[in-house]
Amino acid sequence: MDIFVFVIAAAALLVSSGAVILARSPLKSALALICALCFLAVLFVLLDASFVAAMQVLVYAGAILVLFVFVIMLLNLQPGNMRQRYLSVSKVLGGLAALYFSARIAEGAFRYGIPQGVGKPIEATVKVVGQLMMTQYLFAFEAIGVLLLVAIVGPVVLGMKRLQ
Amino acid sequence: MSFQLLPAHFVMLGAILFGLGTAGAIMRRNALTLLMSIELMLNAANLVFIAYAKQYGDPGGHVIAFFVMAIAAAEAAVGLAVIIGVFRTRQTIEVDELDALRDET
Fold this sequence. Notes:
The structure holds two protein chains of two kinds.
Chain A: H1 2-22, H2 26-46, H3 50-75, H4 89-111, H5 126-135, H6 138-158
Helix pairs in contact in A: 1-2, 2-3
Chain B: H1 7-27, H2 31-56, H3 60-90
Helix pairs in contact in B: 1-2, 2-3
């Protein structure tokens, strides 16, 4: 049963990720990215991470992508100020470099400690993850809080009309 | 059951997803699509974190996944603000045309 869900979700994930990088308009890319994130949440559920999956849909698809779509609507890009697609040497070279890069990552992963075996079932409820976040990972948690504060103040400063 | 679902499959999928994100980040010249490709790469990392958490039975990977999500949110907020600022002054978000620092000689 799991394997069917995995195959379907993984195929849908790859198709929608391909649509993200191939779609002509940024809005279509953003919508494809929302689909990709939802399919990724399905994969998280398969990996016993239902809390992360819920947060993936709520925070990522719900908040971050709404921000993207909002900015795309705000910029209101006309076809005139979007350059037409063309295939250049640098694009081909870039694509080949990306392929080589990810192939090397996969090769390294498989050579040095790809996980073997089916894994252990984990009880990753909100309680467990929350306790871990407040004890073992407390410093990282606080640092992320400061980072988010900077990320709140930064856009406000950047968005000001005039910096006199 | 002849074929079992292993965490290794998820790691492989994560590598492919990261490759797609890298290709998008290198090949696309639209700043918005570029940011979305970076989101894809961050999500590939998340998938691998969760897969390894399952492999070792350690929910610490889930905590790291939340941190990655928070960093993605911060990156999206600041990046989109920069894109809006660039669009306001240059009327374009094609990264090829943002060459103010290029050496013209």
